[in-house]
Amino acid sequence: MLRPLILVTNDDGITAPGIRNLVSVASQLGEVVVVAPDSPQSGMGHAITINKPLRLDEISLFDEIISYQCSGTPVDCVKLAVDIVLKERKPDLLVSGINHGSNSSINVIYSGTMSAAVEGAIEGIPSIGFSLCDFSHKANFQPGLAFVKQIMASVLKNGLPKGTLLNVNIPKTDLESDINGIKIARQALARWKENFVEREDPGGRKYFWLTGKFVNDDKGTDTDEWALQNAYVSVVPTQFDLTDHHNISYLNSWSFES
Amino acid sequence: MLRPLILVTNDDGITAPGIRNLVSVASQLGEVVVVAPDSPQSGMGHAITINKPLRLDEISLFDEIISYQCSGTPVDCVKLAVDIVLKERKPDLLVSGINHGSNSSINVIYSGTMSAAVEGAIEGIPSIGFSLCDFSHKANFQPGLAFVKQIMASVLKNGLPKGTLLNVNIPKTDLESDINGIKIARQALARWKENFVEREDPGGRKYFWLTGKFVNDDKGTDTDEWALQNAYVSVVPTQFDLTDHHNISYLNSWSFES
């Protein structure tokens, strides 16, 4: 029997420890192909490269596993993987990550990791984004890997409903036994309160650097934030139909006069 | 009485004809401040700039209107506008566009125009993205401007439900009388089928250029694509809660065994 084909990508770049961990789990479940950015692409959201050329180069980084690095964004990587690298065989699963840092709550909107997974879902591939709530380059991925494998195996077994992908976040812990299990959750309605640091360059010209503070006023116990704070792996079913269907009838009541 | 404060931005850059048209309509309804990218940012999705500094420079481009150009993405522009330029007074309305080219259907995901509006909504500002279905730099915005004004006036009057913004697309026509009116619609479930053009650079090294074909298998007559093809201005209520709430109970039925 043909082993399932698993496409692996990320947004921290192909040399990040997070993708190495994801490749190692994926290899236990199927045949793996890696197409990932050649440099860090955090915060790229669903950006695509339309006004300049893209490079795609085969490299040897993960032993026997076929791997390509790409000069574009995470979404570019998925498009190149589907249209060029895997033209002959559609992947059975796309996994993106493991991101160094949380993509829970509103972070899903800014995240290159999640946008790669969204693009996979648009292409009709069951897709999962994985993130660990630790921004450090030296983050400890080990405690969460058994859950990563369980979730990947479940999606390979069951598939995913059309138009749905998974946003998986793993709490930062030292031991696997510190994790209480998996919680299916909704995206907490939190946001970043930006705070620009204002500085002067050596020439005396002003510049700004984006920083921010995560503000969560969503007190629900069914959110991804709640799950993570209670040491659960959060799994949010995520969609790319952005229509607010509930407000269509309300807007139909407007008269639109000038 | 204080006139409403309207923040105007876009993704085609501050010199694009589309933003000039939007500024002219907004000026009829309120006090306008412009914060827009200093260069084209199409396809940037919800990208933010976190690893390099941002420039923000006041410029004189629209007569008496306070205007800033920013070196970042559309989302950076909104964040800088809210945190720096308009620190003292929160805008009553954010409008983004008018984009040169459609942002209907799945384009909402890739669009810098719409991401600026999404960021506005996250900040709690009633927000609208406007796009004209004509990619040309010389696109004729005139026929749609009365509808742009009606929709802006309606949002200033009624506000918008929390977490909801509007994605407005205008059909390409020669005359205002060719437009049949406004249709509240849902996002058509269509997608781009990518097609990379493969070439060699002068040094003999391969590169790829992203092109694609829009494929719409969604035959609904309640979609934005249907509305536009029938010469209506489409208005899609859009949300940034990406949770697929309907599938939470389904996922809870999974056992997640490895």
> Tally the helices of chain A: what do you get?
7
Report the oligomer.
homodimer
**What name goes with the CATH superfamily of chain A?**
Survival protein SurE-like phosphatase/nucleotidase
Order of helices and strands of chain A: EHEEEHEHHEHEEEEHEH
CATH topology of chain A: Stationary-phase Survival Protein Sure Homolog, Chain: A
As a percent range, the share of helical residues of chain A equals: 25-40%
- The outline of chain A comes out as globular
Termini separation of chain A = 65 Å
- Percentage beta strand of chain A: 25-35%
CATH class of chain A: Alpha Beta
Structural class of chain A: alpha/beta
As laid out across the biggest beta sheet of chain A, the strand order is 3-4-2-1-5-6-7-11-8
Biggest sheet features of chain A: 9 strands, mixed
Briefly summarize what is shown.
2 copies of one chain form a homodimer. Chain A has 7 helices and 11 strands.
Notes on the structure:
The structure is a homodimer of 258-residue chains. Chain A is an alpha/beta fold. Chain A is built from seven helices and eleven strands. Chain A has helices at residues 17-29, 74-85, 107-110, 112-122, 145-158, 224-229, 248-252; strands at 5-9, 31-37, 56-59, 66-70, 93-100, 127-132, 164-170, 181-184, 191-200, 206-215, 232-239. In chain A, strands 3-4-2-1-5-6-7-11-8 form a nine-stranded mixed sheet, with helices on both faces. Chain A has a two-stranded antiparallel ribbon with strand order 9-10. In chain A, α1 packs across α5 (145-158). The model of chain A has no long low-confidence stretch (mean pLDDT 95). Chains A and B meet through α2, α3, α4, α5 and β9 of A and α2, α3, α4, α5 and β9 of B.
